[in-house]
What does this fold into?
Amino acid sequence: MDSVWSVFFVASIFLFFLCAIFLYKKTSGHKTGSSQYRRSPLPLGTLGWPFLGETLDFIACAYTDQPESFMEKRRRMYGKVFKSHIFGSATIVSTDAEVSRSVLQSDATTFVPSYPKSLTELMGKSSILLINGSLQRRIHGLIGAFFKSSSLKAQITHDMHKYVQESMAVWKENHPIYIQDEAKKIAFQVLVKALISLDPGQEMEFLMKQFQEFIAGLMSVPIKIPGSRLYRSLQAKKKMVKLVHKVIQEKRDSSSIHSTLPKDVVDVLLNDTSELLTDELISDNMIDLMIPGEDSVPVLMALTVKYLSDCPAALHQLTEENMKLKKLKDRLGEPLCWSDYLSLPFTQNVITETLRMGNIINGVIRKAMKDVKIKGYFIPKGWCVFAYFRSVHLDDNQYDSPHQFNPWRWHEKDMSTCSFTPFGGGQRLCPGLDLARLEVSIFIHHFVTQFRWEAEDDSIVNFPTVRMKQRMPVWVKRRTDP
Ligand code: HEM
It folds into this structure.
């Protein structure tokens, strides 16, 4: 009897592997159809295990302090561009700055964004991150122009100043201050004000609470049943959309739109004459646009404090620069305006270096809509391309001692090259990049001119999103020098 079971057992395993290999070939094989690249070889590399591909290896590396080690190992074996299979998709990984630039610069007939299922469910079909073609360009253009306007920068400067002062006024000297948490509160309020003109208060508290629930589901298991993480996040989004709908309705009723300069992003989108910008689309996008306020911008603030704490020479030079400006403005009796903050060269270099080393967005994923050949590398239709910025930012051919925080390198280095892309590039270049820099400059200015601090040990977590593990605790002392 035992031998019958053994045969049955071995036969089942054999059958399982046969099915797995069949299905894997079906999903990972590329059909080039009538493409001119039919005979082109794929980049070198391996697709790993059936179904899983190389995902486990990728995740294991992502949880370490050197997430790029997954890429580095393969880059040494196969070159800067290689094939893999991660997160359920056959993928060409690019650690080559020029290949990544070509991918970013292509339009939606060649590449479209690709995100995990939980994220697309939560964003909704009309999110700017997911739409393509003329509608994406239109919304990108409208919000990009508004974010660049000096009126908005002046408003952001005013709001940042107010919220930073309110927050820092209650910091206690004998308690740890969690920079990442403080930064989140400030950056979220500032962004929500710029999006829908909501001031701090009960509705803001409600929005913040729902937003925490919403964002927790962005990288969750894509199961949408009552009680699941994704379901709870979707419920939270519904409540937020209702609040934004109310704001839109009030604006429509007040008939002030069309007649005055836009006060916020909702005004900008409502002012547009295109029929395509429906209230649903606008409110969905307002929620998605809040993500950098809760995530990327505060993390950039916390990382800047982290790198400065670890580099006393940079902290000294940055403090001197900011003190000098403060004293000058105090003497003149003038408040600092947005251009003052952005004109501090060393402070800007510190932020640039933090963006390079921090890699808040490690890279972006696109899906090929047709067979493509870039720099001799063949990318079949239906495959994903992972443009991995982090490897380029930490490449010793591009940057001397790339793992060293060295803001002085930017004295002579050009930022506008394809080897520096913390904000992406091409048609989807981050429209909020100026705002992000401005907010961080203001936060850092007030921090260094009002406090000295000792940072507790903390480390950077890189997966699923970049953040400080302990939320960047510091012990502050108010400055007594004038
Ligand atoms: C440190 C801060 C930030 C970083 C590192 C960052 C990074 C990026 C990157 C890499 C992309 C390109 C995504 C892609 O190509 O698929 C992007 C797109 C975008 N970012 Fe940012 N961002 C930041 C702050 C902001 C802020 C403050 C806003 C303002 C709300 C913003 C709004 C957007 C939008 C709307 C897009 C999508 C553009 C499109 O697809 O047309 N970001 N960001």
